[in-house]
Amino acid sequence: MGVKIIVPSLGESVTEATIAKWYKKEGDPIKTDELLLEIETEKVTLEVNASCDGTIGKIIKADGANVAVGEEIGEINEGAAASTVTTNNEAAKPQAAAQPASEKPATAPVAAAANNSLAPSVQKLVTENKLDPNNIKGTGKDGRLIKGDVLEAINSPAPTASSAKTNEDKVQRVRMSRLRKTIAQRLKDSQNTAAILTTFNEIDMSKVIALRAKYKEEFEKKHNVKLGFMSFFVKATVEALKLIPSVNAEIDGDDLVYKNYYDIGVAVGTEQGLVVPVVRDADKMGFAEVEKAIGALAKKAREGKLSMADLSGGTFSISNGGVYGSLLSTPIINPPQSGILGLHKTEERAVVINGKIEIRPMMYIALSYDHRIIDGKEGVSFLVKIKELIEDPEKLLLNL
């Protein structure tokens, strides 16, 4: 009996996707919940698993094909997998035992052996593609392999012994992913549609650095999360949005939509591109809750596990280019939002304090905003409020 493999629901307002990679081919045995393929939407990559035991009867849509929600992309011949796997395994045992050790493929034991330090999804990719995890550079915590590392190793072409000296052979042509195409389109649409203006200010980070240094160990011990600077900026941003409501609004046709809630998008760079997961109801969170929310979303982003819900509905965004060493930039608005705050590298500079030159840790901040809805005075006032709260964090803690 044939069981259809169809494109699952992709989330609100998403109707199309691209088949990123089939992990099975026609005739392969499969078991219930085993990974069949990955589908890439404009925001996330989704895994499609087998709904039953059997074998792959046919693949209708190949890698790179554009597909729609509910479309049939393949078929499973139900009920044939268990017997096929058992027969193959039993037949293979005597042959494996008789085969001289010197004739066995050198990489087979490594590829087939389970590595307890790998996440299940990573182990599955390593095993199915007969890869040696020791030859793949890990970018996760403590150098651990994450899914993106393995996918990059799979998609990277192996170097050949012969290489031509023409320019054509020195160029690698890679098809743009749906996520990358969507990022490009949305950012260009933002520039074409919104009247983007960027205004700047600078912040003396001395007090917030001192406050963090004084309480970071006690904070981490009590809340089991590190105290970073992002929680200060998220909380300061919420207070500034309350003071200047237009920065938290959006244009919808001929209407201005003012939002009385504060879902703050925090831009995260991943191997696949920039994503902006959302910290929900940031105004109702304490510092520890904000830090935990950001940490959890960043982890999901790096592992490619963000859901559509994680990425939808933000009212304002923060982009921290300072973590990459950026000293100054003009961030692009994430539509339909009307503003984005850019944070940059903290650097010691000579500044004048009460008529004297002092060395202070300074950070430039930038607000890009849609001038159709936000006036210059409001944009400047927004940054001044953030500067005031970060330079005097006691006000932020006391909600003053």
Describe the structure.
It is built from eleven helices and 19 strands. It is α+β, with helices and mostly antiparallel strands and 400 residues long. It folds into three domains: 2-104, RNA polymerase II/Efflux pump adaptor protein, barrel-sandwich hybrid domain (OB fold (Dihydrolipoamide Acetyltransferase, E2P)); 111-156, Irregular (Dihydrolipoamide Transferase), CATH 4.10.320.10; 180-397, Chloramphenicol acetyltransferase-like domain (Chloramphenicol Acetyltransferase). Strands 9, 12, 15, 16, 17, 18 and 19 form a seven-stranded mixed β-sheet that branches. The chain has a four-stranded antiparallel β-sheet with strand order 1-8-6-3. The protein has a four-stranded antiparallel β-sheet with strand order 5-4-2-7, with no helix packed on it. A hairpin with a 2-residue loop joins strand 18 (347-353) and strand 19. Mean pLDDT is 82; it is low at 82-114.
